[in-house]
Amino acid sequence: MQLNDKVIIITGGCQGLGRSMAEYLAARGARLALVDLNAEKLDDTVTACRAAGSGEARAYLCNVAKEEEVIRMVSQVAGDFGAINGLVNNAGILRDGLTVKLKDGELSTLSLAQWQAVIDVNLTGVFLCTREVAAKMVEQGNHGVIINISSISRAGNMGQANYSAAKAGVAADTVVWAKELARYGIRVAAIAPGFIETEMTTSMRPEALEKMTASIPLKRMGKPVEIAHAATFIFENDYFTGRVIDLDGGLRL
Ligand code: NAD
């Protein structure tokens, strides 16, 4: 798929990886629908995308975990832009904690609220956006591309029972949707980043960040633009579907 003039929805599109992908795709002429919870940052990203070369960029306030908000957002994007050609399911949150922890005689556990919040945004949000966008693409008779942002944590990361489950679910459903949607000319693939320099990771404790960086074979964190580059490859390569690209500096080797 050539990116020029293509309409692409990016969730979590005003910060970190989402913003980087937005600017990268804008510079290649894509028309962007940026979806997030933060109105101020969305407006700022729309301005940056227009400056980067996007023919059109618009902001949509929407919580991807809420079914009625996702249905409304997708229908608004279709009304504003016409065809929808792409979706990047990028919005995500962390609510880390060990499932059971005993420290100094004190027992603590991962709360159901911590579990549910991450499942709602990182897994249900991906399902809702994919379902609505794929339905629109099929209805419009459009070929399209859906990219899911999973994580190396899908292999199982201590302190991330909620996040690992969601990201493993996203990787599994990437295969499900690649199989289900191929007949309509829709490709679905995923990227599993390692540790990338965004607000999500730079908020880690400095000692933990240093230890983690030392364990990466390439000895550095990834840059958001390196994820944007991989997303562009997926959009542009018409024979790529159903696979997860690990982009982790060798961390999982
Ligand atoms: P980030 O926290 O910097 O940005 C996430 C964006 O998603 C924010 O703009 C936030 O407002 C938005 N968002 C959160 N909940 C939302 C909701 N319910 N509805 C709509 N928007 C919502 O995170 P990031 O580091 O840029 O991560 C982006 C994606 O990449 C996430 O799915 C994350 O799990 C994944 N990931 C990140 C890393 C990393 O190292 N940064 C590694 C692996 C995977």
Automatic annotation (TrEMBL):
<dbReference type="InterPro" id="IPR002347">
    <property type="entry name" value="SDR_fam"/>
</dbReference>
<feature type="domain" description="Ketoreductase">
    <location>
        <begin position="6"/>
        <end position="194"/>
    </location>
</feature>
<dbReference type="Pfam" id="PF00106">
    <property type="entry name" value="adh_short"/>
</dbReference>
<protein>
    <submittedName>
        <fullName>SDR family oxidoreductase</fullName>
    </submittedName>
</protein>
<comment type="similarity">
    <text>Belongs to the short-chain dehydrogenases/reductases (SDR) family.</text>
</comment>
<dbReference type="InterPro" id="IPR036291">
    <property type="entry name" value="NAD(P)-bd_dom_sf"/>
</dbReference>
<dbReference type="InterPro" id="IPR057326">
    <property type="entry name" value="KR_dom"/>
</dbReference>
